[in-house]
Amino acid sequence: MSKNIYWTFSAAVNEGSLEQVKELASTMIELTQQEAGAIAYEWSLSPDESILYVYERYQNSDAALQHLANVGSCLPKLMQLISPIKLDCYGSVSESFKEAVKGLPMVYNQTFNGFHK
Questions:
Q1: Residues 6 or more apart whose Cβ sits within 8 Å of residue 73
Q2: 33-90, pLDDT tens digit by residue?
Q3: What one-character DSSP code corresponds to residue 113?
Q4: pTM of the predicted model, to two decimals?
Q5: Contact, 58 vs 11, CB < 8 A?
Q6: Rounded to an integer, what distance in angstroms lies between the CA atom of residue 106 and that of residue 93?
């Protein structure tokens, strides 16, 4: 199996915040595209645009930590615009990554079988 680390994040978009969320997403996507260890970074909205979904995948925990450092200045603003619902993490997660995100309601799921191409 791979050393990839990935997570899915869902959050309610706070009333009147949709356009700001979209603007901030563009900024964060631009920053993340420059990261060598970023594999996927996708932002989606529910059909009524009330729920935000973010899928992120990185080569390994070190790349995920580099991502957090890269977009860290954007996170306080994002948290003002949304209300987190669920944050599920998968893959080979290091203790240093867990320590870095200990304030988030991250659920760590264990991969027990599968393959990676």
A1: none
A2: 999 999 999 999 999 999 999 999 999 999 999 999 999 999 999 999 999 999 999 9
A3: S
A4: 0.92
A5: no
A6: 12
